[in-house]
Design goal:
Number of domains: 2
Radius of gyration: 29 Å
Strand order of the largest sheet: 4-1-7-8
CATH class of the largest domain: Mainly Beta
Oligomer: single chain
Shape: rod-shaped
CATH topology of the largest domain: Immunoglobulin-like
Strand content: 25-35%
CATH architecture of the largest domain: Sandwich
Number of helices: 3
Number of strands: 8
Order of helices and strands: HHEEEEHEEEE
CATH superfamily of the largest domain: Type VI secretion system, lipoprotein SciN
């Protein structure tokens, strides 16, 4: 029986008992009514250990970026004109980012953009088919047109 049905049944039982009781002895009604109404609230919440692990669809996709470019690179995700900045990777450095699962799940194509801080051009690639929980590796090369994305 669901929690809402249980609560409704308790309230109906209390109302019936109060209506059926004689009018003179009002004092015994209050403790019994309080006990019946509060019995459903005395339950302990389920422990976190009892819960199942998060399904794959709620895990973020991970993005590892290796920057071999001569400039620092800013990493963005673009969907429907909305830009989400993930962060910055320094020259000859690497960084890990998490792509929010909601960003990948919702309708619309998602584009990954690597934009050098001191450059005019940027590298972009579509993330169609990438699902929450996937692992991505972006290698930003010295010449941006040679950059590439690997999905695992």
């Amino acid at each position: 029986m669901s929690q809402a049905r249980r609560t409704l049944a308790r309230l109906l039982a209390i109302a019936w008992w109060v209506a059926a009781a004689p009018a003179a002895p009002v004092a015994p009604v209050a403790p019994v009514a309080a006990f019946l109404a509060g019995a459903g609230c005395a339950r302990k919440p389920a422990a976190a250990a009892d819960q199942a692990p998060a399904p794959e669809s709620s895990l973020p996709a991970t993005l590892h970026v290796s920057n071999s470019n001569w400039s620092d690179v800013r990493i963005y995700l673009v969907r429907a004109g909305a830009w989400l900045r993930l962060g910055r990777v320094t020259t000859n450095g690497a960084a890990d980012f998490e792509i929010p699962p909601d960003f990948l799940r919702q309708a619309g194509s998602v584009t990954l953009v690597a934009s050098p801080v001191a450059g005019r051009m940027s590298y972009s690639t579509s993330l169609n088919g990438v699902m929450p929980g996937d692992e991505l590796e972006l290698v930003v090369e010295g010449f941006l047109q040679y950059s590439h994305l690997v999905v695992r």
